[in-house]
Amino acid sequence: MARAAVPGRLGDRLRWKTARLAERRPESPAARTLVFDVPGWPGHQAGQHVDVRLTAEDGYSTQRSYSLASAPDGERIELTVQRVTDGEVSPYLTDELAVGDLVELRGPVGGWFVWRPEQKEPVLLVAGGSGLVPLMAMIRHRRAAGSRTPFRLVYSVRTPADQLYAPELRRDDPGLDKTYLYTRSTPPQWPRPAGRLTPADLTRAGWPPDFEPTCYVCGPTGFVENAADLLVALGHAPDRIRTERFGPSGG
């Protein structure tokens, strides 16, 4: 059977590339940001992800997908990996991979769940746990591009200790409004009790539907489905709600 030719640019994204770990830093007790140098990296958009492949000495190979955390910036990329208990890949990446070690990457992947600086409509980012990672790439890209597009972030996380990028998000970032929701425990004297995302949270911290924002929702499947349903019930157009979800994959 004849095969269609793969364009060069797309073909580059489908090929595995060698990436060398240049830096690692903690984000939470269970998450690490891994900074890789990737020669020949074709560039990416905020919101895309990559496939990571690990191969053992006996030839056994396994792979997982991880969102890009960094704004587009040459041949260096960042991934933030949350350790999955009893996982196969994430414990190795978070606890054992050392600076100078090599992995294989393929991508970037995805074209729907992305934000581009030429977009001028307001943006609502709704994150559950480590679903913040691709949304953080959008925040960083906005900042790097000098965009004045107004962003609002609603970030739901179990406890204050589980929050990712805490020092960076504490900085003043004009045009970015941030709201934190805690589902298990809150900081002392926090005005909102611990609990899951509600319509009142999105009404208070989001955009009115008549502003026609683009909404990006990312997190565990249950969180994403609930958040998307709430946004539609509040009057947001379904075609302006973009979702990215993750679930158990063996870690």
Automatic annotation (TrEMBL):
Entry annotated with the keyword Metal-binding: yes
Source organism superkingdom: Bacteria
Domain FAD-binding FR-type: 14-115
InterPro entries: Cbr1-like_FAD-bd_dom, FAD-bd_FR_type, FNR_nucleotide-bd, MRET, OxRdtase_FAD/NAD-bd, Riboflavin_synthase-like_b-brl
Pfam families named in the record: FAD_binding_6, NAD_binding_1
Cofactor(s) recorded in Swiss-Prot or TrEMBL: FAD
Coiled-coil zones: none
Keywords in alphabetical order: 2Fe-2S, Iron, Iron-sulfur, Metal-binding
Record-given protein name: Ferredoxin reductase
